[in-house]
Design goal:
It is built from 17 helices and no strands. It has helices at 7-21, 25-31, 38-56, 60-73, 80-93, 97-110, 115-127, 131-144, 149-161, 165-178, 183-195, 199-212, 216-228, 232-245, 250-262, 266-278, 283-291. The protein starts with 6 loop residues before the first helix and ends with a helix.
């Protein structure tokens, strides 16, 4: 039955957070010692600093202008690789998808083994729905540095979306060695066990995640496990908890519709289904659920 939780949605939420964490890398690298003439370097530093401030405030157009000016002011500065990498993400946030990828491609051409550049490009590709290209970048990152937790986690999640379950499980085991208590490790295992319908195995991981960081998405994910195991009271409790956090979550209304159907509460099921569709759930998917 197609009610599995939405990996793409979870992945994209994480991507937004992760992308913001890379923006200050270029400014930090510059501050650590780029050797350039004093006056020119000061101007370059100022532009990068102003760009960093614009990024932190979400002023994407100003950030693009400042980063472009900094790059053009010292075209041979090696730190431009990082500026180009950040510029690619800025342009993505401006809705300039093709230009964003072209900018990141140029950064990668200049620094083909830069994990930062590959990571930024992978994030943008994922957000654009170019899963196979993003997966290839994450695979390359792991080849370059197998000790990084975040790319390994993203690779594990994206492997599931490519139906490469064995590779995802390998990533889970690697994450467990790298950082056994990390939330990324727990989400990766929970996702793997859900995708492979090992519901009982998934539940403890969701529980550990929820104990630390309650969220609508994780309540929904654990509710699916309970539904598949016919543990209806526990599923109902998770759906209720999730809706308390976000009463406009369409996935949870879809799951509650299925729950009500299992309880032979057909009118309630149809009411929840109608609301799920109104909140953005695909009508075809919703109707297939209620007709099963």
């Amino acid at each position: 039955m197609e009610i599995y939780w939405n990996y793409r949605y979870i992945c994209r939420k994480i991507i937004i957070i992760r992308m913001q964490s890379h923006f200050k890398i270029a400014a930090t690298a510059l501050a650590l010692g780029c050797v350039t003439p004093q006056l020119s370097a000061q101007s370059y530093f100022d532009l990068v600093g102003d760009a960093d401030k614009a990024i932190s405030e979400g002023k994407w157009q100003s950030a693009e202008d400042l980063l472009t000016e900094a790059i053009e002011s010292q075209p041979l500065n090696p730190s431009n690789i990082l500026l180009l990498s950040n510029l690619g993400i800025v342009r993505y946030n401006l809705g300039k998808d093709s230009l964003a990828i072209a900018t990141l491609d140029e950064a990668h051409r200049r620094a083909p083994v830069s994990v930062t550049v590959l990571s930024n490009r992978a994030q943008v590709l994922t957000a654009m729905g170019r899963d196979k290209d993003a997966y290839a970048d994450y695979s390359r990152i792991i080849e370059l540095d197998s000790t990084l937790t975040e790319p390994r986690y993203m690779h594990a999640i994206m492997a599931l979306r490519q139906d490469e379950f064995d590779k995802s499980f390998e990533d889970c085991k690697a994450l467990e060695q790298l950082s056994p208590e990390a939330q990324e490790t727990q989400i990766a295992y929970a996702s793997y066990y859900s995708a492979t319908e090992q519901w009982e195995n998934a539940i403890p991981y969701y529980t550990a995640i929820l104990e630390k960081t309650p969220s609508t998405e994780m309540y929904a994910a654990r509710a699916v496990c309970y539904l598949m195991l016919q543990r209806l009271n526990e599923a109902s409790a998770d759906i209720t908890s999730g809706l308390e956090l976000n009463p406009e979550d369409g996935e949870l209304y879809l799951y509650r519709a299925y729950l009500n159907k299992m309880r032979y509460m057909n009118e309630d099921a149809r009411a929840d289904l109608t609301k799920a569709i109104r909140l953005g759930i695909d009508r075809k998917r919703a109707m297939q659920l209620i007709e099963e």
